[in-house]
Amino acid sequence: MNRILLLSKIMIKNAGSTWGNKKGAGWKSFLILFAIVIGLLPLMSVGVMFIAGLYDGLAMIGQQGALLGLGVAIASLAIFVLGIVYVLSVFYYSQDVEHMLPLPLAPWHILGAKFLVALFYEYLTALVFFGPLLITYGVKSGGGVLYYLFALIIFLIVPIFPLVLSALVVMLFMRYTNVGKSKDRFRLIGGFAAIAVAIGFQAVIQRQTSGKMDNIEQMQQMIVSGENVLLGLVTQLFPASKLAALALMGSDSVSGFGYLVAFAFLAVASVAVFFYAGNRLYFPGVMGIGEAMAKRKKVDDSAFQKLVQPRSALIAYGLKEWKILWRTPAFLMNCTLSSILLPLIALIPLLSRQDSGEMLASLSAQMQGGEVGGIPIAIACAAFMMMAGANSTSVTAITRDGQGFFLNKSFPIAYPKILIAKLMPGILLSMVSMLLLLAEAGWLLQLSPLFVLYCILVGIPGIIFINLFGIMVDLNMPKLGWSSEQEAVKQNLNPLFTLILSALAGGLTIVGAYVVSGSMMIVGLGLFALFVILDFIFYRILVTKGPDWIEKIEA
């Protein structure tokens, strides 16, 4: 066990300077984490108020226990979905297994250490999704010391089962796609399939529960049929979550202790299953992950001339960045793929509901009604900026080069051209997200061409604004000392700054449109002018200060 803890500690430290490897990084890490907490406070406050309101309503009918079950279920679902990505990054794309095999380590040491690293990141997820619920429920119910002790234990146990489940799904796919010479291609297909399973699972669960939760008469019948029937409904998402909820509800009784022991036993059993399956699935699927197949193709003179035809330095460098994004699995999964997946995931809450047709018709009428003016344009602009903020392409443009970044200082290309070329892929991918979301909305909501035109008009400068901010963040806080590609994009806090900015900018955009209460044309043209001015200011800062920032970057 000591070797597992030591190895997991080393793996977390190797994530980079974020956790204080370098001199002076402690204060920097503290300030970054403090900024993240401040940025999340408004969201956490809204969540706490929402939970408190739910508790008051459920307490009136004696069904407040359903809130705990729902919280555990939602946290487990979020951990399962994010666990797919974490397991892919930590278990497969870190490329450190082949270096560990010659060491005096048993296979279960490596498996256990990687599981603990993924579990560490899942605790951060649980802190956001589950922590506020436990504290709010304890305050509202007047929970004593035993409640908070049970809550801490359950908080530590809850992420284990869904993480094991996501690890088994990923290892199963990656084990049986490790065939032939095109290993990278098949691994990517396996990764896509694993993500598709997670998204499909979420869609099926939401479709099964949406109709039940929206039917008032059926809900009343369920309430009067017995005690804690709502708890049985919401915990259908993850059956073990019912044990956690019952343990918290009975924290002051012997039965609550029994439920806690049963929940802990299930977690231990799931870890045992993980080790048993991991020994048989993980190592055969991960061996040779660093190998790649090279195509041998004879190039004639005419084809060679096409390959070496001259092009501008800006286009050539931009194409280089674009190809690296598509050819590197970690960059493809975390940067390129997100621009396509986010608009598709946005469809799940709408299409998976049993009453999706009526809801879409009502939403379409509200968005294009004359009484709302230009507020829908502002909402669309905020959505585009949020997707651009969630895409980490521009905010990791410098970091992705690693130690190879210093070759840029020897290229016969002006620094401003290098920066613009690095900015191009992020802007293009953000525009792909915007166009996909507009295509979906236009098809489902029957949007007018004028409305779509205004959305594009305000969306493009808003997207450029977020990407310009992202590359400036990375210029000032690059993380070049990574040992694997997944560290550059996954274990990097810089993307959180673009998320926070996009959330603030989107919220202010909507509030501004509400205060102005202008027409669609006034809001659209106003937002367009505002973001064009901001883009010009950020662009001038980038091309004038950017070269100095590059020169200051050290190994």
Q: Could you describe the 3D structure shown?
A:
It contains 24 helices and no strands. With 555 residues, it is an all-alpha fold. About 4% of the residues have low confidence. It is globular, with a radius of gyration of 25 Å.
**Given the C-alpha coordinates, what overall shape results?**
globular
**Unreliable sequence segments:** 16-20, 212-230
N-to-C SSE series?
HHHHHHHHHHHHHHHHHHHHHHHH
Rg over alpha carbons = 25 Å
Q: Count helical runs.
A: 24
Portion of residues in beta strands equals under 5%
Provide keyphrases for this structure.
single chain; 555 residues; mainly alpha; 24 helices
Short description:
With 555 residues, the protein is mostly helical. The protein contains 24 helices and no strands.
Strand-helix topology:
Blueprint: H1 2-13, H2 25-59, H3 65-92, H4 97-100, H5 107-129, H6 131-141, H7 145-157, H8 160-176, H9 183-214, H10 216-225, H11 229-234, H12 241-249, H13 254-286, H14 301-307, H15 313-327, H16 329-345, H17 348-351, H18 356-367, H19 375-390, H20 415-445, H21 449-476, H22 485-489, H23 494-516, H24 520-552
